Amino acid sequence: MFRALILIDNDFVNYSVDLIAVAKQLAGEESVEICGLAINLATQEVKGFDSLICVEEPAIQIKDSRVLTDIIEQVHQKYQFDSILILATEFGRMVAPRLAMRLNVGLVADITDIEVEGQERRLIRPAFSGNMLASIVCDSSPIMVSVHPNVFHEEVRIKEPKMTHFPISELKASSIEVLSVSSEEKKKDIREAKVIISAGAGFTENIHQLEELATELNGSIAASKPLVEQNRAPREIQVGQSGKTVSPNLYIALGIYGSMQHVEGLKNVKDLISVNTDEGAPMNYLANLIVVGDAAEFVEKLKLRLKK
C-alpha cells in the first residue's frame, strides 16, 4: 500500500485536489491510499480523497510556514506516509523545503512528469533555466514533492472522503504579527482564462496595447519570462516553468521564441497561434497556425478584422 499525504492550500483548493493525480502516478501499480490535510478549512466541497485529516484550531496562523511545518510533521509521525505532496505556490515553496529539512529527506521541486518502473520512481523537472529536463530518482522516504498548479489534473472528484479530526499535541506560538489588513480588487488569474494573448521578447510594443484585443476575444494578457525580466510585464502574468501553467482553448504567442522554460507552462492547449519573424522558432513547431511576420503588426490587423 502506497500512502500519500496532500497538503490542501486554502487559497487553491481545486489545484490541491488535482495533486491526487500525482499521488496515483507515484503509486504505479501499487494500491494507493490518498489523504488530504485540511487546516482550518471548510471541507464540504473537498472530494476525491480516501480520507481527510482535519486540523481545526482558531489559534493557528495559517500563513506561518513554521507553524504549518510543525503540524504536517506531527501528522506524518502518526501515520507515516510514503509521499508528501505540496502545491508549489509562493506559500507552498516556503513550507516544502522546511518540511524536507525537518524530515531529513530530499525535495524534488516543480515536477512536470513522473515515470515509475517497478519500485523505481523518477520525477521529471526542468533544469538549467528550463534548457533541459532532469530525471531524479527518489529512494528516500517519504518522497517530498512540490508541484506547479494546473500541471496535473484529477477529473473524477466524486468520492466522499472519510473524515478524521487530528488533535495538535503542541502548537507553537506564531512569530507573525498582523499589523494591518487591506483589500484590493481581485484580478483575473490567467490560469482560468480560455483565451490568452501572450507577448514575448519579439513583441516590441507596450504590453498594454494588447488590452483592446484581449477585450475583443474575452481573454487575458500573459507574458514570457524575458518581458518580466525587462520589467515590461508583471510577474503574476508570466507563463512558464518559473511562472504559471495555463490550459486555454486558444493561446496566441506573439514574438515568443518557445524555449523549454516557456513551453513547460503550456498544458492541454487546444489551439495555438504563433506569430514570429523567425520561421524556425521552436514555438512554430507546436502551433496549429503559424504567422511569419511582425507581432505588433499582426495585432493591429487582427483588431481591424475583428471590428469588421
UniProtKB/TrEMBL annotation:
| UniProt cross-references to InterPro entries, sorted A to Z | DHS-like_NAD/FAD-binding_dom (IPR029035), ETF_a/b_N (IPR014730), ETF_a/FixB (IPR001308), ETF_asu_C (IPR014731), Rossmann-like_a/b/a_fold (IPR014729)
Keyword Phosphoprotein included in the entry's annotation: no
Cofactor binding summary note: Binds 1 FAD per dimer.
* Residues annotated for FAD binding in this entry: 238-242, 255-262, 276
* Full protein name: Electron transfer flavoprotein alpha/beta-subunit N-terminal domain-containing protein
Entry superkingdom? Bacteria
| Family assignment from sequence similarity | Belongs to the ETF alpha-subunit/FixB family.
- What are the entry keywords? FAD, Flavoprotein
Q: Which GO terms describe its molecular function?
A: electron transfer activity; flavin adenine dinucleotide binding
Check the record and name the Gene3D superfamilies matching this protein: HUPs, TPP-binding domain
The UniProt record lists the Electron transfer flavoprotein alpha/beta-subunit N-terminal domain at: 4-180
Keyword Flavoprotein attributed: yes
One record GO biological process: fatty acid beta-oxidation using acyl-CoA dehydrogenase
Cofactor list: FAD
